[in-house]
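This section describes the prediction task in plain terms. A model, or a person checking by hand, is given the sequence of a single protein chain and must write out its three-dimensional structure as a string of tokens. No templates, partner chains or ligands are provided. The sample shown here is typical of the held-out split.
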Amino acid sequence: MPTPEFILELRRHIGNETLWLSGANLVVLREGEAGTEVLLGRRADDGNWAAISGIVEPGENPADTVVREAREEACIEVEVERMLWLDVMDEVTFPNGDRCRFLDHGFRGRLVGGRPGIGDGEISDFGWFPANRLPVPRQERLEEQVRICLEDPRDVVLGLERR
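The expected answer:
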């Protein structure tokens, strides 16, 4: 996974200290033969199935981030329907010792063009899965993200459940 240049520049100054970053996730739904399906990608770094996601670039709107990531990672065009959650994630320590904490913006979207495929190498596989039978292994928060998406709460959910 290529690290954005702005993060590499920050790391030159702070080393492995915790970085506060904005992230964005997109749950893409469709109605299929078996009911509601969700588009997931298998992450190339850890093999987990996950929603489309990425780091928000400086000055970028998080909704634009997920549109860009869908194009780069999955070769698809999406339309963001609405924001569903805002969550402060637990600190993550990467294998190289870098630490990050993300403010995660969650969106629901729909496919408007293209066919899912392998883009920039961050994802090794894609598939549509029944929303009530998500594949394993999967990202820890995926089930909660899909649940919120299906429930379509009136207000933005502030914080996802920790299990």
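For orientation: The longest strand covers residues 99-113.
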